């Protein structure tokens, strides 16, 4: 323990002053145990009697409380003393990267965060968590902890997990990948960050969907890319609007476009691949929510159609299992594989080995497939409940864009412009209902009011109650409009 002595007076007095400073400064908060006297004496090079004398004075002044059989603990005398804190000093950004961080990212205002004080919330991006998964994952982790070597894992990812990912992708997503082309990463966000560093120089152009996932957009902007937004409709990215001057990279979510939920049609997939091949540019495929479709068999990933190896394919286990897992994967074109492995090594030396081993075992023993089947069934029930409740309770007040996939719906407020939509969100929050605008995901400002309704984290009963409150807010706002 670091306790500087000021050199003034007896040693026990110096120690008393140093310990008081640690308590009053917050380094030793109330309730924390003081070090044993023998140990502290050894650490500071003092006699034990000196430490005992200091502790006795602290007890007498009310800074220390002794508990029989447990030791001595911090007890602040009188009224609690506030920790001394200094306001952060704002200094000029020290690099071009820092300047872009400040320009493009506001960590205090991230879209989609749960509104404070809400009783019901249609928060999106929060996946369904199966209670059975908790115990199954605990068993997998326990097994992995006993059998994972304690040394650094390979930067590319454990071979057993990379092989399991290939089997999963072949079965579920129609992607034929070799384990040597797979890199295990910390989710899609690290995947796009590594992709930017591997294939882009600052100032190069990147096509993004409009609308698109804000975190991907910010990662590219912070890297220094110049973004070229291309509109999305019901068939996905409008490939006929791709620029004449080819970009270096094209970022798409073809299996379940975020946030619209559109599925890219087969003709547009082929047109996109042809464009990338002709113009020698790369495609970053974020296979967002590709596992969950409710109207038909899952569509093959874009990467599965790519004969020219222009697609950098990224997927994550964070949404289908739980976000805190922070494990995903890249399937890299063979010519870029070594660059991606090196970039991953520079970033963090490799993803956690125990979690990789546990996930590989979970995939191999069928636990993951069972989880997907249970989750898809539950999500379909919740989706159907939300659709039914909105159609029954909100009626003509809304237009629903049903994506037939994922864990959210897009709902438009009929007759409301964007400003009125924001006012409605504020009004609903005052009634205890969390609603979330689609506007932050558009490059070009929206004219109409749109909402994202997440249903993954709500039970059927909670969905019904929240939908009733939503309909009530719609009626109350309509009444106020009529009164005006």
UniProtKB/TrEMBL annotation:
The keyword Ribosomal protein does not apply. Residues 9-77 form the HTH gntR-type domain. The keyword DNA-binding applies. Keywords: Aminotransferase, DNA-binding, Pyridoxal phosphate, Transcription, Transcription regulation, Transferase. Pfam families: Aminotran_1_2 (PF00155), GntR (PF00392). One of its GO terms (molecular function) is transaminase activity. InterPro entries: Aminotransferase_I/II_large, HTH_trans_reg/aminotransferase, PyrdxlP-dep_Trfase, PyrdxlP-dep_Trfase_major, Tscrpt_reg_HTH_GntR, WH-like_DNA-bd_sf, WH_DNA-bd_sf. In the C-terminal section; belongs to the class-I pyridoxal-phosphate-dependent aminotransferase family. This is PLP-dependent aminotransferase family protein. The lineage of its organism: Bacteria, Pseudomonadati, Pseudomonadota, Gammaproteobacteria, Lysobacterales.
């Amino acid at each position: 323990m670091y306790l500087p002595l000021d050199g003034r007076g007896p040693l026990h007095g110096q120690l008393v002053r140093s310990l008081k400073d640690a308590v009053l400064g917050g380094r030793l908060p109330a309730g924390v145990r003081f070090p044993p006297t023998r140990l502290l004496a050894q650490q500071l090079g003092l006699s034990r009697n000196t430490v005992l004398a200091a502790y006795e004075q602290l007890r007498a002044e009310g800074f220390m409380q002794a508990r029989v059989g447990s030791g001595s603990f911090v007890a602040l005398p009188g009224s609690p003393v506030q920790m001394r804190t200094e306001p952060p000093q704002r200094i000029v950004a020290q690099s071009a990267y820092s300047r872009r961080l400040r320009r493009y990212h506001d960590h205090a205002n991230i879209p989609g965060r749960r509104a404070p004080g809400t009783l019901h919330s249609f928060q999106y991006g929060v996946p369904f968590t199966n209670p059975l998964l908790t115990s199954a994952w605990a068993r997998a982790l326990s097994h992995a902890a006993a059998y994972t070597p304690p040394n650094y894992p390979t930067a590319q990812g454990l071979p057993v997990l990379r092989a399991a990912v290939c089997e999963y992708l072949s079965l579920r997503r129609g992607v034929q990948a070799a384990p040597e082309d797979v890199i295990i990463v910390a989710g899609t966000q690290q995947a796009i960050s590594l992709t930017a560093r591997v294939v882009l120089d600052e100032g190069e152009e990147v096509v993004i969907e409009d609308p698109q996932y804000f975190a991907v957009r910010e990662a590219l902007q912070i890297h220094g890319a110049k973004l070229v937004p291309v509109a999305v409709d019901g068939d996905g990215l409008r490939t006929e609007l791709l620029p004449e001057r080819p970009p270096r990279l094209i970022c798409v979510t073809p299996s379940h476009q975020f946030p619209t939920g559109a599925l890219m049609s087969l003709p547009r997939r082929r047109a996109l691949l042809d464009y990338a091949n002709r113009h020698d540019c790369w495609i970053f495929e974020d296979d967002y929510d590709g596992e969950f479709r409710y109207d038909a068999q899952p569509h093959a990933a874009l990467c599965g159609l790519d004969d020219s190896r222009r697609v950098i394919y990224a997927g994550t286990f964070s949404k289908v299992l739980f976000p805190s897992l922070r494990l995903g994967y890249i399937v890299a074109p063979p010519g870029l594989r070594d660059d991606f492995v090196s970039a991953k090594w520079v970033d963090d030396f490799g993803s956690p080995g125990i979690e990789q081993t546990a996930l590989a075992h979970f995939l191999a023993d069928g636990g993951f497939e069972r989880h997907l089947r249970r989750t898809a069934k539950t999500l379909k029930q919740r989706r159907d409940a939300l659709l039914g409740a909105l159609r029954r309770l909100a009626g003509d007040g809304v237009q629903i864009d049903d994506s037939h996939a994922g864990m959210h719906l897009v709902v438009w407020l009929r007759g409301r412009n964007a400003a009125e939509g924001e006012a409605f969100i504020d009004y609903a929050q005052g009634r205890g209902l969390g609603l979330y605008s689609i506007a932050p995901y558009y490059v070009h400002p929206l004219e109409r009011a749109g909402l994202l309704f997440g249903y993954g984290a709500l039970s059927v009963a909670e969905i019904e109650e929240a939908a009733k409150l939503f309909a009530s807010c719609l009626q109350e706002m309509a009444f106020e409009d009529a009164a005006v």
